[in-house]
Amino acid sequence: MKLKLLESYLGSVTQFPSPKVELEQYPTGPHIASRMLYMAENSFGDITGKVVADLGCGCGTLGIAAALLDAAQVVGVDVDEDALALAQENCEELEVEMDLIQANLSELPLQGLVVDTVVMNPPFGTRRKGADMEFLAAALKVAGTAVYSLHKSSTRTHIKRAAVRDFGAKTADVMCELRYDLQASYKFHKQKEKDIAVDLWRFTTSSV
Amino acid sequence: MRLLTHNMLACNIKGVTKGFPLGIEHTRLETKESELNADFLRHIFPKLDWKAFHEAAQSVGVNNIPDQVEPVMLDDDEFLRKFHHALLEVHLEEGALICPETGRRFPVTKGVPNMLLNEDEV
């Protein structure tokens, strides 16, 4: 599938009508999501024919992108019931299959060797400190091969150190820096649009 | 949810050491046909907990999955067809997953297992 086509499919994913601030439910736009998954497949072969988990899947954008790129199985995990219901609707709309699980990332009920690749857009940890790190630790525990994730560029040094030293990543590399336009999702966003610098990371786990 | 997902799910209540595999209760199952991908089945085969998969298949009424398997069976089309069906085509839509150690029930509604823990379980 061509990148442009993937991006246009993802454009029809319905985003949160009323995002929950405590969960930092910022949408992953089609532009970023399509590039993230396209790179994971075309540069590294981490999606097609693999088991992919989308942690904190929200309305399902990244998982749906993985399914559109022919992941063998996609599992989406989120704590929020409303987000999961929306993800289910989006899957039906785009005619893809994704198994959804309601769970808290800090007590992630996934184990074993089944998951190959994790894709995620975790909370940046601005509302609840450390939320981003909780996601990263969980992802690196579950992924057999690689983790693709977005983190604020300002946390780059910290992320790299924690991933390799504390969470057992074999490698941790920034693939590219992106501008994340958080359109004024919440009332406390004063400017109409707020661009923040975000890194697209690829972590590999030790079984590679 | 499919049995492939069941094969990676465990009960995570604090203090539980044998939270896998979860038992299955079902009030509604659904079969959705999907395309068989032999390469994927060979890829996933060594990563599965076969005993858990075999038991799970039985508990959803799929009784043609052998309890003992050898990699050579992956060359047999008939075996691959059964394997594919049990792993990826049977969906648990309504029912529950049961922790093997504590008996705690995790309800499955519209295909989604609710694995959230109560405050006294974390």
SSE layout and pairing:
The complex is a heterodimer of chains A (208) and B (122).
Chain A: H1 3-10, H2 30-42, E1 51-55, H3 61-68, E2 73-78, H4 81-94, E3 99-102, E4 117-120, H5 131-142, E5 146-152, H6 156-166, E6 169-183, E7 193-205
Parallel strand pairs in A: 1-2, 1-4, 2-3, 4-5
Antiparallel strand pairs in A: 5-7, 6-7
Chain B: H1 3-6, E1 23-31, H2 38-44, H3 50-59, H4 77-89, E2 90-98, E3 105-109, E4 112-113
Antiparallel strand pairs in B: 1-2, 2-3, 3-4
Describe this structure in words.
The complex is a heterodimer of chains A (208) and B (122). Chain A has 208 residues and is of the alpha/beta class. Chain A has one domain (3-205): Vaccinia Virus protein VP39 (Rossmann fold). Chain A is 32% helix and 26% strand. Chain A is built from six helices and seven strands, in the order ααβαβαββαβαββ. In chain A, β2 (73-78), α4 (81-94) and β3 (99-102) form a beta-alpha-beta unit. Chain A starts with a helix and ends with a strand. Chain B has 122 residues and is an alpha+beta fold. In chain B, strands 1-2-3-4 form a four-stranded antiparallel sheet. In chain B, β3 and β4 (112-113) form a beta hairpin. Helix content of chain B is 28%, strand content 20%. Chain B has one domain (3-8, 19-111): Single Sheet (N-terminal domain of TfIIb). Chain B has four helices and four strands. Classes of the chains: A alpha/beta (208), B alpha+beta (122). The interface between A and B is medium-sized, with 27 and 32 residues. Chain B: This is Trm112p-like protein. Chain B: Belongs to the TRM112 family. Chain B: Interacts with TRM9. Chain B: One of its GO terms (cellular component) is tRNA (m2G10) methyltransferase complex.
